[in-house]
Write a structure and sequence with these properties.
The complex is a heterodimer of chains A (202) and B (170). Chain A has 202 residues and is α+β, with helices and mostly antiparallel strands. Chain A has seven helices and five strands. A five-stranded mixed beta sheet of chain A has the order 1-3-2-4-5. Chain A starts with 13 loop residues before the first strand and ends in a 15-residue tail after the last helix. With 170 residues, chain B is α/β, with parallel strands linked by helices. Classes of the chains: A alpha+beta (202), B alpha/beta (170).
């Protein structure tokens, strides 16, 4: 079973932080996944704590069969990213996760368009991208790459290329593990890194 | 986690034991019916438990890739067919769930993945080739979703689809 990120970070990825940051955290996430919404402020907390030491990458892993709005939420993100660039992508990324729990219609097409407009994107273009299922190939490529890397649910994190199976729900714990796992990765070859398994995925 | 050492999944190279199990309350399916194409057998402990849900939701989503590789996916647990139906409908699953319910766990036992302690099956995967031979098997720690990458690699490692035909035959 793979626990190693098979696909390196590329220019098309959604990235926050410098390429030479000593720690890279890759998240495979689903915009309708409640666990991902819970993880969102934790990742923000890590970014505040590690500052320039941390690079964060988000890749799409929409489980569309159980989350009816997950694909369109991902498309809205890509549409805003295409219009406004990386900064715009992260703004709607934040907006979607911050509003995900607001109501049963928090991720309806109308709301997704609204979040995009609120960060400065053209609402008509988002609406037409949703209508035409634009960017589906790119989103599917994220998903397939995640499957090959051993992503088994959302959110799944990789720390410097190695899957993180610890507790992501608490900033202190995650920060401690991030330091340790990234340290191990730089100190030893990948194959020698002991793999921890956790008992349950909440 | 202390994985039981009493059962070991049947290893690669073994002929997959045939079975007939309920797939709905009034229909049965036999493994032999799938001869001629690869089969993925995914044993899991129970409908509804959180990890199983995630695992089946993932396989549901990866189903187009399994299909592209010519494979048939069958989920198996000791739950009854009515329970499977409710679970499958709730999760919108597009592949069959087989009820290893009567005699309970008989198929899991024959594949070496029955858990005597709690009367469920291990979380175990088998990739069976078109000729009915197990080509890959894997038992995951009970609480860990094994993902789909191992299955995809095992399917891709199979010889030309159709099994008995050499790649050069056509």
């Amino acid at each position: 079973m793979s626990t190693t990120l098979r696909f390196p970070i590329i220019a098309q990825d959604h990235v926050q932080g410098a390429a030479d940051a000593p720690i890279t955290l890759v998240e495979y996430g689903d915009y309708q996944c409640p666990h991902c919404a819970r993880a969102h402020p934790v990742v923000k907390g890590l970014q505040r704590r590690f500052g320039e030491q941390l690079r964060v990458v988000f890749r799409n892993f929409p489980l569309t069969e159980i989350h009816g709005h997950a694909l369109h939420a991902a498309i809205a993100g890509e549409s805003v990213g295409a219009q406004l660039g990386n900064d715009g992508y992260w703004k709607i990324h934040d907006a979607i996760y911050e509003h995900q729990m607001d109501s049963a219609t928090a991720l309806s097409d109308a709301q997704l368009v609204r979040y995009g407009a609120s960060v400065g994107a053209d609402p008509a273009r988002i609406a037409s991208d949703l209508e035409s299922d634009a960017y589906v190939d790119r989103i599917q490529a994220d998903f397939s790459g995640g499957v090959r890397s051993g992503v088994n649910g959302t959110p799944t994190f990789f720390v410097n290329g190695e899957r993180y199976d610890g507790d992501w729900s608490d900033v202190d714990t995650f920060a401690r593990d991030l330091t340790r796992q990234s340290g191990e990765r730089t100190a030893r070859p990948a194959a020698a890194v002991p793999r921890s398994t956790h008992e349950h995925r909440v | 986690m202390s994985p039981s050492t009493t059962s070991t999944p049947l290893p690669p190279g073994t002929a997959a034991p045939d079975f007939t199990l309920p797939v709905t309350p009034d229909q049965h399916v036999a493994l032999a019916e799938f001869r001629g194409r690869p089969v993925i057998l995914a044993f899991y402990p129970a409908d509804w438990s959180p990890v199983c849900g995630d695992q089946m939701a993932l396989y549901n989503q990866v189903l187009p890739e399994f299909t592209r590789l010519g494979a048939e996916l069958l989920g198996i647990s000791v739950d009854g067919s009515w329970c499977h139906r409710a679970f499958s409908e709730a999760r919108n699953l597009h592949f069959p769930l087989l009820a290893d319910f009567q005699p309970k766990g008989d198929v899991a036992r024959r594949y070496g993945v029955y858990r005597e302690d709690d009367g469920t099956s291990e979380r175990a995967l088998f990739v069976i080739d078109a000729d009915g031979i197990i080509r890959w098997s894997y038992r995951s720690p009970l609480g860990v979703n094994p993902g789909a990458d191992g299955i995809l690699e095992a399917l891709e490692a199979l010889p030309a689809h159709g099994g008995i035909h050499q790649e050069t035959a056509t």
